[in-house]
From TrEMBL, chains A, B:
<feature type="transmembrane region" description="Helical">
    <location>
        <begin position="318"/>
        <end position="339"/>
    </location>
</feature>
<dbReference type="InterPro" id="IPR046342">
    <property type="entry name" value="CBS_dom_sf"/>
</dbReference>
<dbReference type="InterPro" id="IPR036739">
    <property type="entry name" value="SLC41_membr_dom_sf"/>
</dbReference>
<dbReference type="Pfam" id="PF03448">
    <property type="entry name" value="MgtE_N"/>
</dbReference>
<feature type="transmembrane region" description="Helical">
    <location>
        <begin position="359"/>
        <end position="381"/>
    </location>
</feature>
<dbReference type="GO" id="GO:0046872">
    <property type="term" value="F:metal ion binding"/>
</dbReference>
<feature type="domain" description="CBS">
    <location>
        <begin position="204"/>
        <end position="260"/>
    </location>
</feature>
<keyword id="KW-0812">Transmembrane</keyword>
<dbReference type="InterPro" id="IPR000644">
    <property type="entry name" value="CBS_dom"/>
</dbReference>
<keyword id="KW-0813">Transport</keyword>
<dbReference type="InterPro" id="IPR006667">
    <property type="entry name" value="SLC41_membr_dom"/>
</dbReference>
<feature type="transmembrane region" description="Helical">
    <location>
        <begin position="286"/>
        <end position="306"/>
    </location>
</feature>
<comment type="subunit">
    <text>Homodimer.</text>
</comment>
<protein>
    <recommendedName>
        <fullName>Magnesium transporter MgtE</fullName>
    </recommendedName>
</protein>
<dbReference type="Pfam" id="PF01769">
    <property type="entry name" value="MgtE"/>
</dbReference>
<keyword id="KW-0479">Metal-binding</keyword>
<dbReference type="GO" id="GO:0015095">
    <property type="term" value="F:magnesium ion transmembrane transporter activity"/>
</dbReference>
Length: 450, 450
């Protein structure tokens, strides 16, 4: 069950903008979820989108702002005054507000902050701005419910009602001491079932998961998934409760991480989307292509070494793309499996066992493929038996070597603290191309003696 | 802050198993989170792991069971009697229990079900078994809190306390009519702040998101992410409330989907892990390799067409792996960007605009790369000027064609309802190898006239 944006609706909205029928616009749009309005705005031009933005209330537009595509958001923000931007931010949760401020230029940033009305909220936002994006501090928010361990349940419920007013999802009530140090948690369910005079210190749960404010976001994601948590408190160096991370923040981290590994495997070095500008796409795509081109230079030189074979055994050269392609494909498969294993923390066993396994696996695959090649070279490719034999032997060797390179380069990178996903895609295919061709012609040279 | 398994702990556990000190084992392990115990069991042999399983209480072992690696779980279950398995399942949430039953063999399945003690629970589990794995029905659970629209808040709170006993996370209270049809929802916070005599029909929220039991799991994931939901109710064809899906179920769907796209891009056709058996890994890896090999046959034939060039312009053949590699890399980049755009629903604009953009982008990239190649071929690769010119022109053409193939094949597949991710990895590299080589030698033939 999902709202579908119809062409008629878009048309109606456009017409209402044209005749400036603000009242009707408001009536129609107030009934639509902010995520859907964001999609409607994506279909309009910048002027119309900004118009709608000014018609609607800031509690609605603030939420819409978060859902917009980056370039549309940037454009709309550039048409709002610092005061108007501050009005939007006053409506948002601290981490969302901080994310938007971080996108603003340095001079506007200061102006917007000075225009924020709610001083406590402003303090929290400024506080969040100093954490790095990919840390617990960078994804946490300040909204949480906390109670003092010295209170009783009655005080706690009263306080909680006040605090919970601005929080969409409570999950857990955190218990702190007088110094704000995290001591434990209370569940909402517990509160509903405990007598009001009970002291909090008698009922709260002392054992709880938490993360340090400097922890990496992917580490937080791993812990929350492992222990199946919907929210996790964040503490500073002194153990003081400074924020909270909820599972919906983590969904984005997990998705971004998976997308990033995929992009690296495809030879894309930055987070880009199909709708980004040509310049941005080029910046993301060119580096790995240049690397692959330089690798290509080496293959040219390597083939040059075997020029002597051209006269008598020219058709050896017909097989170079086949050998290179198989080396590349096998290498990418092996590296992808290792990179996912490292990312999901599912690799076990010793390096030696992995070596034995990878060799057996690639021998099995190699022999099956080489048999197909041997038969094919005879009946379909029409080459002399000896050439068929050479490419067959070469294919098995190349597959074994390529799968070892694909397996151990990511493991090595990981050991040195480098993202193993770098060793997928163009890097692996290029190095395997070079090795594969070298092995193939070396075997040919040994057998044919050119 | 995470529990780390030490070698000493593993050693201690092993020794306690050997001397059969069940009491001490229980004392140590009861203090450790079930997800961590699962990791400890992974380090033990099957016998020891099963031993621990029989020592601990079923409320703990049931949770451990869910966290185990597939092969260890299968092994442990095979050592338990149907009655023992049923005891584990009695402790689990309905969807987790149904997932485990689905893994059992047909004959044991029936026995296990007949041994389940809690009849209501058993009914729910059997009910879940009939839904397909990748639908809302396949990932939902039966645990939820629902109240009748005709009750008042007091009855509702009482009922809710009873129902909530078995539910770890309440999120929302669903409101149904006498026929069990979903009417709306109540928030826990609302209940805390409304007078007890109020009728439910006066306070519940009528607008809510829900999904049909047949909806695809990825679609549910998309809706929950879009509307930022922590739980969504599931209804049957008659609008009756049959289950609920929470965000932690969706995290798995999102992760699996991303992993699967990544594996397809790497030429792996099934969901495998590095620690799977050689047979499983071969089954996942061989199909695309065979396809790539057959594609390789075609490149051999294509090169054979241009044999005539070998005598005078043999060094043309040195460049085939370079051209093929660049075609493959560009194609993979383009297809990955489109596949992600389709998956994240961020593609906009007409096909014609996309064509113009892709051509401009690849021309820009192609010209930069071709310039490097032209200079390199002169100073580093040592070939005649005319050969340098040919590979330069060929590279630009090949990059443009490869990026068009990479862009439009996934779009085409998507149009026909085929997973566009199939058109990444080996499929794209292989077809681009063939096209690239054909274009390169055709240009050479035109210029050199062999």
């Amino acid at each position: 069950m999902e709202f579908k944006i119809s062409k008629e609706l878009i048309q109606e909205v456009k017409e209402l903008i044209e005749v400036k029928n603000d009242h009707k616009l408001e009536v129609i749009l107030n009934d639509i979820h902010h995520a859907d309005i964001a999609e409607i705005l994506d279909e309009l031009d910048f002027d119309d989108a900004t118009y709608i933005f000014k018609v609607l209330d800031s509690d609605k537009t603030a939420e819409i702002l978060l859902e917009l595509e980056d370039d549309l958001r940037e454009n709309i923000l550039s048409r709002l005054s610092p005061k108007e931007i501050a009005e939007e931010l006053d409506e948002l949760e601290t981490n969302d507000a901080a994310d938007i401020i971080a996108e603003l230029s340095q001079e506007i940033k200061a102006e917007v902050i000075s225009e924020l009305q709610d001083v406590e909220h402003a303090k929290d936002i400024v506080d969040l701005l100093r954490y790095k994006e990919d840390t617990a501090g960078g994804i946490m928010h300040k909204e949480l419910v906390k109670v003092n361990e010295n209170w009783n349940v009655l005080t706690c419920v009263k306080e909680m009602r006040i605090q919970a007013e601005n929080i969409s999802r409570v999950h857990s009530i955190y218990v702190v001491d007088d110094e704000d140090r995290l001591k434990g948690r209370l569940s909402l369910k517990d509160l509903l079932t405990t007598s009001t005079k009970t002291a909090i210190s008698d009922v709260y749960i002392r054992k709880l998961n938490y993360v340090n404010v400097d922890a990496e976001d992917v580490e937080v994601a791993r812990i929350m998934q492992k222990y199946d948590l919907e929210a996790i408190p964040v503490v500073d160096e002194l153990g003081r409760l400074v924020g909270r991370i909820t599972i919906d923040d983590i969904v984005d981290v997990i998705k971004d991480e998976a997308d990033q590994d995929y992009q690296l495997a495809a030879g894309i070095s930055q987070d880009v989307e199909a709708d980004d500008s040509i310049m941005e796409l080029t910046k993301a795509r060119l580096p790995w292509l240049v690397l692959a081109l330089l690798g290509g230079f080496i293959t040219v030189r390597v083939l040059g070494l075997f020029e002597g074979a051209m006269l008598e055994h020219g058709n050896l050269f017909f097989f170079t793309p086949l050998i290179a392609a198989m080396a590349g494909n096998v290498g990418v498969q092996s590296s992808a499996i290792i990179v996912q294993g490292l990312a999901n923390d599912t690799l076990s066993g010793s390096l030696f066992n992995r070596l034995i396994k990878e060799v057996s696996l690639s021998l099995l695959n190699g022999i099956i493929l080489a048999s197909i090649l041997f038969v094919g070279s005879h009946f379909f490719l029409d080459v002399e038996m000896v050439i068929g034999l050479i490419v067959t032997i070469a294919l098995v060797s190349v597959i074994v070597i390529a799968s070892l390179i694909g397996t151990f380069i990511p493991l090595l990178l990981d050991k040195f603290g480098i993202d193993p996903a770098l060793a997928t895609g163009p890097f692996i295919t290029t190095s395997n191309d070079i090795c594969g061709i070298l092995i193939y012609f070396s075997i040919a040279k040994m057998i044919l003696g050119f």
